[in-house]
Specification:
Blueprint (H helix, E strand, L loop, with lengths): L1 H22 L7 E6 L5 E11 L5 H13 L3 E6 L4 E7 L2 E8 L2 E7 L3 E2 L2 H8 L10
Antiparallel strand pairs: 1-2, 2-6, 2-7, 3-4, 4-5, 5-6
Length: 134
């Protein structure tokens, strides 16, 4: 089970890094984690990154929307001010790109994974994460 869950997160991390490259963002400081899904037995593999950047102008926005469409993403610019926002979906994933206050944020959600409610709560609590401090 642990390997299968790790594979989900690795796939989400790769998809997020690919999306960053598509958008011209660095993906160095991303996080890929499990987040709560729509029910207590669902986990949502999620890629997040925040980088310094400005709200895209109209020309750059058109380029971003075009690149997303060329790679199978369906979405739209939902707002330009005060917070710039694009939401898009593709196959089993959804993404939100926002920009405000000199920060650009990208969030990618993959298909939720359903587990036993207790196991899902343990995973969200970090019970199965490797200890990264020595």
């Amino acid at each position: 089970m642990r390997d299968a869950l790790a594979t989900h997160l690795q796939r989400t991390a790769r998809a997020g890094a690919d999306l960053c490259r598509l958008l011209g963002m660095t993906s160095t400081w991303n996080t890929t984690r499990w987040e709560p899904g729509s029910s207590s037995d669902a986990l949502l593999p999620t890629f997040r990154i925040t980088v310094k950047g400005h709200v895209p102008d109209h020309e750059t926005t058109a380029i971003i929307v075009g690149r997303l469409a060329q790679h199978g993403w369906n979405g739209a610019v939902l707002s330009r001010e005060p917070i710039f926002r694009i939401d898009a979906q593709r196959e089993t994933a959804s993404m939100t790109l926002t920009a405000a206050d000199n920060m650009v944020r990208l969030v990618l959600h993959e298909t939720p994974v359903r587990l036993d409610r207790t196991l899902a709560s343990w995973i969200l609590a970090g019970a199965f994460e490797d200890d990264e401090t020595s």
